Nucleoside-diphosphate kinase
Amino acid sequence: MSVAFRRESDEEHLEPRFELPIPPGPNLVTARGLRQIQERNDAIEARLKTKLPEEERKDVLRDARYWRQRLVSAQVAPTADGEQVAIGTRVTFVRDGQTRTIDLVGHDESEPAANRIAFTAPLARALAGAGVGDELEFAGSDKPLRVTAITVVPDAEEAAS
């Protein structure tokens, strides 16, 4: 009998839904990042208490597994002192004549369009531990990247309660 005449369920043809990938390494966060994770987890848990269509419920449960894990594994990074680049600092640097300011944050609060990058991003790793006036090689450029200012990100310095 030809496959064309066999009745198969529609689910056999669906793309598999994989779990959301958990970034490797420690889940370091700022106080702001911990609040964001908690708020996201609370919103998803509230949504799970409502009546949802089966497929939507599966998607929400998938998200819930991710955010529950991120909440449980979150570790508030030590408060930065503003003397060296670390998670929770705002760094201004000059590269190829262009001045740029970024915040180093945890994975889940990173938003490159808003100049918040994860502490594990290549640029963040290159800057980590640097002080004002330090010149660093980055991305094979023949001109060094120069750190011009470091401050503590206002939201990041609040202790997690």
In short: The mean pLDDT is 87.
